[in-house]
Amino acid sequence: MQNTKTDKKKNQINRREMLKKVGGAALAGMMLPMMGNAASNNPQTTSKPNIVFILSDDHRWDAMSCMGHPFIKTPNMDRIAREGVHFENAFVTTSLCSPSRASFLTGQYANSHGVKNNLTPWDESSVTFMELLKEQGYDTAFIGKWHMPGKALPNLRGVDHFVTITHEGGQGVYFDCPLVVDGVKQERKGKYITEDLTDFALDYIDREHDNPFCLYLSHKAVHFGFLPPKELNDLYSDVDLKLPKEADYWIPYTNHHAFFGGLVPMNISYRNYCEAVVAMDQQMGRVLDKLEEKNILDDTVFVYISDNGHFFGEHGLYDKRLAYEESIRIPFMVRYPKGIKNPGRKESNMVLNVDIAPTLLDLAGVSKPDYMQGESLAPMLQDGNTKGRDSWLYEYFPDYPMPTPGIESVRTQNYKYIQYQKDKRPKELFDLRNDPREKQNIINTEAGKKLAAELKTELARLKKETRS
Amino acid sequence: MEKKSVFHRIFLPAAIVILVMIFSKIIYNASRSIDNWTLHQLVATVSIVFLFLSHWIGPLFANTIAYFNGASFAERIGVCMAAPVVKIAINLWDFIGVYSFGEFLFLIFHSLIIGPVFIGLLCMGVSEIGCRLIHQRKITDSGVRILALNNVAVLGIGFSMTALMLYSGGHFYFHNIFSVVYTAIFS
User: Fold this and answer.
1) A405-468 domain in CATH 3.30.1120.10?
2) Which of A227, A252, B13, B113 is deepest in the core (most CB within 10 A)?
């Protein structure tokens, strides 16, 4: 199922046939401004929009003011939600950095793209959506965290400008993080990583582009080691953190959590996390300002999303990986006036990280290759009544040397069934309507037993489907 | 110095640390069910202090008790290693079945698995010097050497390995070496 070069050739043959369709899509694109949005002064983008894709790390779905967080203020994320579509039920198919990042790029599940954990290498023959966009005439830049195992730097086909991190195994650090700029290592003394990467992004947007561009801005923030810039250091010093009832400050030190790193008391790490989220929001604002300044904001598909969530004491947990909502649910919003009907909409359909690549290709007028397993969300952007998927598969593959066993789960709008490798933990079933915090495992109730059997069948079907 | 019974020389000092470790872990995990936030935090914090003392510097106490109960040097090593071995066993329990047998064995080189052994040796080395000083001065036993080959070796191994594990970011740096070796062997 892997999207190898051979598969790509097949797709290229298909693509010839599809050129006619692309032409049609371009025509449709030209008609989109008739949906009532501002016309652009940028002549290049009548058919193909620019794409700015901002990916954060470990940003959970509810850590934004537009999700009602008790104290975090994220005016720029709120703006994207207000002027675009906010997917409130967005999830990752594997809640771990490397697999999730590979899913964004390839539109595939971890089992297909092969990056199952943080040690399995990125397959150099994998085809990213950026490579496909490049073939369709896009200028492309990847700026920020790559963080996939394999060679320190991948041969990232189809990317014109590649700024990334190799420091600390590709994780980077918040301050003074060296970067590799088009293959040349640069020291970045005195720089805060979120701002530094944004500077590179702004510089890229500022360049003269004869073609539409795709900017992939991949932040280190807000991964652990959470640190805000100095000016935000005391932003939330005095607020009540409102940690969950079952949390305490020492969770990161106990019950195997030390394996995941981040040995800082929970209250300190959560405060820093929230401040780092605000810093990221501020930097997102700079990108929006730059696009406005260049008068190309409305010609740009602007996407904000995260690679997975994070526990801060829920279920007595820290880190991510497990199939509970705090881990698998992510912030996801799209602003693109020309392709969105009724902006400011909250979309409740369940959407996945594997949907990103097909969606961006679709919005650029490029057909989805066969190997991509996600679905384009463009119809959902254009029509608030589009029906989404009924269920989806979550998988976690053991990530040496972490103690978390393999996980398989199926989530529907109302229920979630979870089973663990070799039954290392009891099977779980949650009624998400009545128990959104997943506190009551109902698998041993009469109704639960019946439902679990159905969901187990659905799990098997989804596994087969995603491996075919 | 009087050589007391095996119970006092070996079992008692080892058991004190192990029991503190186990009970404080049970109490810590149970604290999550306390509804009152302040009480929950208080119980969690007190239990975590005891858990940490037993995890990381338990051998400091265990060795001191064993020393003054007349345990031999070999017995004292056994006493000091008892709690780390129990901790390793508890840690490894959850890994059974998750990885292959070879990967499971390789886990022993992870700093969080093997770390308590070296920190235990460091604690024992520090305790040995303190005990020998007290032994020499208060019990006026001139035959006691403060810095003998055995206790200096224990201190040296414990200190150097702990320093290596904590060097340049501690866990993360050591973990990178661990990951490189793991990838070379198992990929």
Assistant:
1) yes
2) B13
